[in-house]
Amino acid sequence: MRACEVCGVRRAVVLQRHTGRALCLECFREDIIARARREVERWGMIEPGDTVMLALSGGKDSYVLLDILPDVVKPSKVLGVSVIEGIPGYNREEDVRRLREVARERGVEVVVTSIREYVGYSLYEVVSRAFKRGVRHAPCTYCGISRRRIINAVARTYGATKVVTAHNLDDEAQTVVVNFLRGDIAGLLKTHPLHRPKAPGVVPRVKPLRKVYEWETAALAHLKGYPLQETECMFINMQPTLRARVRQALYEVEAERPGTLLKIMEALDEALRDLASSGGPERLGVCERCGEPTSPGRRVCKLCEILEEAGVARPIYTLRLPRTNGLIAEVEAASEAEG
Ligand SMILES: [Zn+2]
Ligand SMILES: [Zn+2]
Predict the structure, then answer these.
(1) Measured at the alpha carbon of residue 207, what is the angle toward residues 201 and 209, in degrees to the nearest 5?
(2) What does the DSSP assignment read for 42-85?
(3) Which residues pair with 81 in a beta bridge?
(4) CA torsion sign, 244 to 250 to 252 to 255?
(5) What is the number of domains present in the chain?
(6) If you measure from the C-alpha of residue 304 to the centroid of ligand 2, how many angstroms do you get, rounded to a whole number?
(7) Which residues pair with 333 in a beta bridge?
(8) What separation in Å is there between the alpha carbon of 15 and the centre of ligand 1?
(9) The domain spanning residue 124 has which CATH number?
(10) How far is the CA of 118 from the centre of ligand 2 (A)?
């Protein structure tokens, strides 16, 4: 095996196709840290005074985020949150236990909650109810919207100033292309790191891994020996079809011309820079049912809407959260839902 092309000393363990370099584990990790740090500094994602809430699913990207963040930036406090979806056969209890152990070794306390706790039903139960009523949103829609809401509520409760997600370059490139293909330019602008929604109760979300390839997070997690989720989500084949097709197409393009996704995202970051930040932060509205922030022009938030369609008329919308790390959590996370 050849030597690392950066340090010239240690054994190379990965071939980074977009740079053509063979790298050892240490230099590979340093390269990922450098890209994350560049994003964090360039867009002012996380500052030393921030209290950050890491959104941790328990997948490979979560472990990479936990692994590198302390070497990227030093916010004043770091907490984690993991939301159990409630999908049969998807062994989240066990995954979360391991995630918590690894996080604790890094001094990060992980708050665990679930869709069932917040909504009153598990993801599987919500999806089943919706299907019985002939409503055919992809399960990922219920999952994504619920998790996003819960993570924001938990972050707000613990006084976090930033939510940090572990989305990687592939995730972001897919979102960009899907928005583009739908002609959703507002959606496209929302993917830009300078896009900042503004409303009481919304904790800004940042993505330090947005320039790190998915194969890189998978390789780093594997090489560092992090526990990887063995079970697959039972809804994996019910993903929105457009996104699944875009994912496949981007894999093929990247395989043919390594570095393409990175170049597209770099070009878009610059091209959309002024547009994403012009007009100031996006002003969100307030849902007239639950009081949570909602997209401009909506009277009822997306979560209330899709839950009503699924026959969940009175979601609980509260969380019982532990006191942790000296931070005091209010028991009532969300404003009391009326009606
Ligand atoms: Zn090296
Ligand atoms: Zn609502």
Answers:
(1) 160
(2) HTT---TT-EEEEE--SSHHHHHHHHHHHHH---SEEEEEEEE-
(3) 55, 111
(4) negative
(5) 1
(6) 4
(7) none
(8) 12
(9) 3.40.50.620
(10) 13
Average pLDDT over residues 188-217: 93
Question: Chain-wide mean pLDDT for the chain?
Answer: 90
Q: 15 lies in a domain?
A: no
Q: Indicate whether 9 belongs to any domain.
A: no
* Domain presence at residue 110: yes
C-alpha 335 – ligand 2 centre gap (Å) = 10
* Nearest CA among 280, 61, 233 for reference residue 164: 61
Distance 3 CA to ligand 1 centre (A): 8
- Name the residue among 322, 315, 325, 332 with its Cα closest to residue 126: 315
Least confident of 34-38, 93-97, 188-192: 93-97
Instruction: Please tell me the pTM assigned to this model.
Output: 0.91
Ligand nearest to C-alpha 284: 2
User: Which ligand has an atom closest to residue 287 CA?
Assistant: 2
Determine the pLDDT at residue 94: 81
Domain that holds residue 198: 44-213+224-309
**Model pLDDT, residue 324:** 62
- Residue 207 reports pLDDT greater than 50: yes
Domain contains 30: no
SS3 263: helix
Listed in sequence order, the DSSP H helices in the chain are 25-42, 60-72, 92-105, 115-119, 123-132, 139-157, 169-181, 185-190, 214-223, 241-256, 260-271, 273-277, 302-309
Sorted by sequence, the CB contacts under 8 Å of residue 202 that are 6+ apart come out as 152, 284, 293
> What SS3 state is found at 297?
coil
